Each structure stands twice: as C-alpha cells, then as structure tokens.
C-alpha cells in the first residue's frame, strides 16, 4: 500500500474537492461486469450477480507516483500527472494491494489515504480531530456524547492500517473521531468533496470484527460542516455510508448488520434503504450474511458510495444494496469522517437498544476497535 502522500487541490471544479492532500492521479477502467451505475435497481438487487472480487478492474501498478514528496504526510496520494510510473504496492505485512471495487466506467483517483504510518504513529495531518466541543482533559481532546474523543485513540498499526479504538481507562471513556472538515476546525485545513459534474466514488476498506463493545458504534460517512440539517440538501447533508452498532440482546443480534442513511433534516428529512428481505430489514439495516459475509470474523470488507447530482448508490463488498434519489446534495462541502461514538443506555441508547454503560462491557469486549485499510476517492471521466 505504498501510495505516498500529500497535498494540492488542482482543478477544484473538475475534481470536486477542496483543500489539501488532493490531486488527480490514476485513471482506472472498471470491469464492465460490475453493476452499471446508471441502471442499478436498488429494489431488485441480486447478491449473486455482482462480482465482489473485481480483481481485474484495477491495475495496482498503474497508479501514478509521478511526483512523490518524501516530506508529505503519510498515506495520501500526490502526483504531477506523469503517466505510467510504477510504484511499490506491497504493504509491510507482505500482502497484496487490494484493488478498489469500482463501478462501471473510467475513474480518476483524486484523493486517498493508505495508512502506511509507522506503528503507533498518529493519523496523517489531513485528518482533523473534529469540532471544538467542550475541551477534554488533554490538548486535542473533546467531549462528545458520553466519551472523550481523543486523537490518541486513532493510531497506525504499522501494517498498513489505521486503528480506531474505544477504551475505558482510569474512569474515562475514550474514543477516536476523525474528519477532513468540520466547523470547529480552520477552513483552510479542510478537504471536502461532492459529486462534481461527472460523479464521484468513495470506498472504505475496513475490518469491524473487533468492534465489540456495547454502547459504542463505528461509522464511515460524509458530512457538510455547516447547515447540514436545515432541510435543504443543496447546502449539504449527512451521508452515512456505513454505521456498525455492536449489540446482542436476549432475542436478537446486530453483530452482522450495518446501517446506511442520508439526512438533510433531523425530523422528516431522511432517507434509508427500503426493506428487501433477506438483504435489508424493516429498519433499513443491511444483513452482511445475505451476501455470504460475516462481519464478526477477522476480515476486511468494502463500503462504497457512487454519488451523482441526482442519485447515490451504496455498495457493500462490490454489491449494490441501495440506490437513493431523495435528499441528494450537489454541494462540494462534504468532509470524510471515520468515527467511534459512545452513548450509554439509560436504559436505551439513541439507537433504541438496552446497551448499558460502556464501562460495563466485560474485558472480552474491550478495548473495542476497527481497522481501516484505505480510503480512496475517484472522479468519473
């Protein structure tokens, strides 16, 4: 995963991004066997008709490393546009660089983080600690919900992943919260995205098998820093690509379910995947086992969003599971977020589950963490 970092946002309108650590790089032709972004019907998705592998859809060696800045921050992509410069894509653990599972079409890589930092090093500088909620006990810490959001809980593992943790230490609940843009941070440091004129695709690859602690949840999402819930999608929205809420109750389990949604108002302004058994239940939760996957096993999975001005398509391991046309924003002000949040049950948490207090989790569920292998953003040609 040696795509090395850094910063410039060239051709802002074409790239659909602003801020640092962004510049067009690689051009990739997606396998024509993928789901056709213009014809996918979220109401009739056949899990068997999508090739989750798509190993032939990306040539890992074609990523342009034309102008690598050795002093740039870890993980993001930089290039001067020179073509066909081969780079080393073998991660430190000796594994193969997994290709992005791109939808049909030709796509240009415009931003990425491959998380190649040294063991226990912090997240790269383009990841900001989030809005300035009430200050926490240490510099950079903030209180949010029932925890201290601390950059110390977001660390590279030295194997090409970023580890986001939730822990209970010395009577304190601690969790990782990262964003590329928020109204508590200097706008000059923001990196934001939108559909642009031709569409964008973002993909996360993550392992949630160790995200076990009740009263916490892990999310991969996008959010506009300002006016998100003003009932007008044109000003920006919240786009939840994946929310994973670990909990097992007496009669049900959430351990193989995840949630997706779009919000432009905290009351009526929301969209969720419609029920479609066995893939999606009545609460808009997607069942990974319906796609032959088990989120509790030690394995990475991909979650993706294909976003145009009039629709959004959501993917899990290359499978299209939802096409949304409600509340779709064209705004280019959405920051990427990777977060763990903690909300104690009293007796129920905000998800409606009797989770108890975070500190009541047994040692077998703590520390609770997720690993992210990469985040990649593409612009469609």
SSE diagram, text form:
Elements: H1 12-15, E1 17-19, E2 27-29, E3 106-113, E4 142-144, E5 147-149, E6 154-156, E7 162-169, E8 172-175, E9 177-179, E10 191-193, E11 200-207, E12 216-223, E13 238-244, E14 257-263, E15 270-271, E16 285-287, E17 301-307, E18 312-316, E19 319-324, E20 334-342, E21 368-380
Parallel strand pairs: 5-8
Antiparallel strand pairs: 1-10, 2-3, 3-21, 4-5, 6-7, 7-8, 7-21, 9-20, 10-20, 11-17, 11-21, 12-13, 12-20, 13-14, 14-15, 14-16, 17-18, 18-19
Subunit organisation of the chains: single chain
**Residue share in helices?**
under 10%
* Total of domains: 1
Terminal residue distance: 24 Å
Write down the Rg.
Answer: 19 Å
Main beta sheet, described? 12 strands, mixed
Q: Count of DSSP E strands?
A: 21
Outline type = globular
Mean of residue pLDDT values? 79
CATH third-tier fold name: Jelly Rolls
Number of helices: 1
CATH architecture: Sandwich
Question: Would you mind describing this structure in some detail?
Answer:
It is a single chain. The protein has 381 residues and is mainly beta. The protein contains 1 helix and 21 strands. It has one helix at residues 12-15, and strands at 17-19, 27-29, 106-113, 142-144, 147-149, 154-156, 162-169, 172-175, 177-179, 191-193, 200-207, 216-223, 238-244, 257-263, 270-271, 285-287, 301-307, 312-316, 319-324, 334-342, 368-380. The strands form 2 sheets. Strands 2, 3, 4, 5, 6, 7, 8, 11, 17, 18, 19 and 21 form a 12-stranded mixed beta sheet that branches. A hairpin with a 2-residue loop joins β4 (142-144) and β5 (147-149). The model is unreliable at 1-25 and 31-95 (pLDDT under 50).
